[in-house]
Amino acid sequence: MTAAFASQSWTRPATAGGSWVFGREVTLSAQPGAPRALQWLLARNCSITPRQLLTVYAGLCGASLLVAAFFYSVGATLVLPFAGIELVALGLALRIYGLHATDRETLTLVGPWLQVEQRCGQRVDRTDFGAAWTRVEPVAGQGSLVELSGHGLSVRVGRFLRPELRPAFARELRQALRRVSPDIRHASVPGIEQN
What we know:
This protein is α+β, with helices and mostly antiparallel strands. It has helices at 50-73, 79-100, 166-178, 182-185, and strands at residues 23-27, 36-43, 104-110, 113-120, 123-130, 135-138, 146-150, 153-157.
C-alpha cells in the first residue's frame, strides 16, 4: 500500500497523563524513516492463547486416555469409547473458542485515512474512511457501540470495550480525527479509491 503521511509526529491530546488512553503511536514498517500512524487495537480479553490451549488439550487427552486404558485393561471396556467421545466433544468446544480467541478491531489513522479492520474468527473486514469526513457517533445511546460513518459506509466498533469506556474511546477517536493536519486532509492516497 502506498499512502501520503504526516511529516511530523501526532499531536498528543490534553489528557492527565499527556498520552493517548486507548491509542498508541506505531511505525508502519521496520525501515528507517518509515511513516508513523496512530493505532487503536481493541481485542477480546483472552486469558489463554490458542497455542497454550492446544498444549492443555493435549495434556488432558494424554491423561484421560491413560486412565481409560487402565480401566480397559482391567475389564471395563466401555470406559475407553466414552473417554474418546468426551475428548472429541471437548476438542470441538475448544476449537470454537480458539477460532474467536484472536478476534479484534484495529483502527489505524494514517495520514488523511482511517483504516478499520475487524477480525471475527476466520473473517476479516477492512474499511477505509477519509479522516476529514468520518463521523463518530454512538449507535443507540450511552454505552452502545461506536458507529463510524462516511462516504456512504458505516462500521460499528467497540465490541471489546466495556460499555462505560466506549464514550471515552469515541471522544479520543474524534479528537485524533480533528488533529489530522489540514494540508493532508485532501491529499490523495494511491491504492485507496476516493469517493
